[in-house]
């Protein structure tokens, strides 16, 4: 229980106390700035140059507030109440660079931070915070020609509904009506939906910047929701997941719709599939089941391929496997060595100092894109 003296501190006094807090290498730098994902006009949460995050919540009637596990570790970051009813706290250590989901636990109830934008992840809309990365230039919003991300609704007889997808078309798509493009089908992870690759992943900005720099040939990206079998979210739901329903939606309904509605190069040689985490699992299953549909396979923190399961199937032009250095990088590297020795064009990529998180997957897409659709 906190002392009456501590509870009597004002928010200003508490903030000054934070200035004297020590890190392993010295004091916490007091150069905090609002996170780039804050609501318009909101100053908190804030991030400093060392990667620490600071939170400020106005909740005078609350008895306890904690920021969820992952920000500060060891059960989360506990906030301290000032005399004015404002709660403030800073993570115990610097966060990994990139995007992070989080929420608040206030007197046992789970709430989003009113200072930030919300992102669908962890099977619910969560607050999001961005820790600036040293290499963030590749997904930065720049003064370049931009492509277009549009929502489409496509008919699905197998699920008896219209389903949603997002389609990225590259710069120039609307002008040259004769040009056709390859397509990457890109899947999200467990607990997320078809908005994740644009909102959390900045896939469109990554593509815009790569195209503007001349590093890739333009292609279309299609992203749709990967759950079709009505499973309720939960830690054990994936044990009962079967690929059949989603495979039907993707291969029998979405791909024909995209080929009929957009100027695509509608053949295997110009079609790729990739996915992060659960989306990698889906990619793995579907590419093995439908090897005549895709020429490029990519698993981003989503498992590996083995020569045995690829044997006697049409050989892909590329197998790309990646993960963060804080995941299982040796497994990825070893799998690619085995694939290469078996005669496959396989590439591994390890994102340094990241775990199972979006900076890993942003970097993976950046590395993957130039390898796709090489004539």
Write the layout of secondary structure elements.
Layout: H1 4-7, H2 11-19, E1 22-23, E2 26-27, E3 33-34, E4 46-47, E5 53-58, E6 65-67, E7 77-78, E8 80-81, E9 86-90, E10 98-102, E11 104-106, E12 109-111, E13 118-121, E14 124-131, E15 148-156, E16 161-169, E17 183-187, H3 196-199, H4 203-212, E18 220-224, H5 244-261, E19 271-276, H6 278-289, E20 296-300, H7 307-310, E21 318-324, H8 329-341, E22 346-351, H9 358-368
Parallel strand pairs: 17-18, 17-19, 19-20, 20-21, 21-22
Antiparallel strand pairs: 1-2, 3-4, 4-5, 5-9, 6-7, 6-11, 8-9, 10-14, 11-12, 13-14, 15-16, 16-18
Protein name: Esterase
InterPro entries: AB_hydrolase_fold, Esterase-like, Ig-like_fold, Ig_E-set, Mycobacterial_A85_antigen
Pfam families: Esterase
Describe what this molecule looks like in 3D.
It is globular and about 70 Å long. The protein folds into two domains: 4-132, Immunoglobulin-like (Sandwich), CATH 2.60.40.10; 138-371, 3-Layer(aba) Sandwich (Rossmann fold), CATH 3.40.50. The longest helix is centred in the last third of the chain and has 18 residues, at 244-261. Helix content is 23%, strand content 27%. It has helices at residues 4-7, 11-19, 196-199, 203-212, 244-261, 278-289, 307-310, 329-341, 358-368, and strands spanning 22-23, 26-27, 33-34, 46-47, 53-58, 65-67, 77-78, 80-81, 86-90, 98-102, 104-106, 109-111, 118-121, 124-131, 148-156, 161-169, 183-187, 220-224, 271-276, 296-300, 318-324, 346-351. The termini are far apart. Strands 15-16-18-17-19-20-21-22 form an eight-stranded mixed beta sheet, sandwiched between helices. A hairpin with a 4-residue loop joins strand 15 (148-156) and strand 16. The relative contact order is 0.10. The model is unreliable at 1-24 (pLDDT under 50). It is of the alpha+beta class. The protein contains nine helices and 22 strands.
């Amino acid at each position: 229980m906190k002392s009456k003296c501590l509870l009597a501190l004002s928010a200003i006094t508490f903030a000054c106390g934070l200035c004297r807090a020590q890190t392993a290498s010295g004091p916490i730098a007091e150069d905090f700035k609002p996170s780039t994902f804050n609501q318009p006009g909101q100053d908190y949460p804030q991030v400093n140059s060392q990667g620490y995050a600071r939170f400020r919540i106005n909740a005078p009637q609350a008895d306890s507030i904690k920021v969820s596990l992952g920000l500060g570790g060891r059960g989360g970051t506990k906030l301290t109440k000032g005399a004015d009813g404002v709660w403030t706290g800073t993570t115990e250590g610097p966060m990994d660079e990139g995007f992070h989901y989080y929420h608040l636990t206030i007197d046992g109830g789970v709430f989003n931070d009113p200072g930030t934008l919300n992102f669908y992840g962890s099977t619910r809309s969560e607050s999001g915070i961005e820790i600036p990365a040293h290499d963030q230039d590749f997904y930065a919003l720049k003064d370049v020609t931009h492509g277009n991300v549009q929502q489409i609704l496509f008919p699905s007889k197998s699920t008896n509904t219209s389903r949603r997808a997002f389609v990225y078309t590259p710069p120039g798509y609307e002008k040259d009506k004769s040009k056709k493009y390859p397509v990457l089908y890109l899947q999200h992870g467990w607990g997320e939906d078809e908005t994740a690759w644009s909102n959390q992943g900045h896939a469109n900005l990554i593509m815009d910047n790569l195209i503007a720099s001349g590093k890739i040939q333009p292609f279309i990206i299609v992203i749709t929701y990967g759950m079709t079998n009505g499973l309720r979210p939960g830690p054990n739901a994936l044990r009962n997941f079967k690929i059949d329903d989603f495979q039907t939606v993707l291969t029998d309904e979405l791909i024909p719709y995209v080929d009929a509605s957009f100027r695509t190069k509608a053949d295997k040689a110009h079609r790729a599939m990739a996915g992060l985490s659960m989306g990698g699992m889906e990619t793995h299953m579907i590419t093995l089941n439908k090897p005549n549909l895709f020429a490029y396979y990519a698993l981003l923190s989503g498992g590996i391929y083995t020569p045995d399961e690829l044997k006697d199937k049409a050989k892909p032009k590329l197998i790309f496997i990646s993960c963060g250095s804080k995941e299982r990088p040796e497994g990825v590297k070893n799998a690619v060595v085995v694939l290469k020795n078996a005669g496959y064009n396989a590439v591994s990529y390890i994102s340094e100092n990241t775990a199972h998180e979006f900076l890993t997957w942003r970097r993976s897409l950046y590395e993957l894109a130039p390898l796709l659709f090489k004539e």
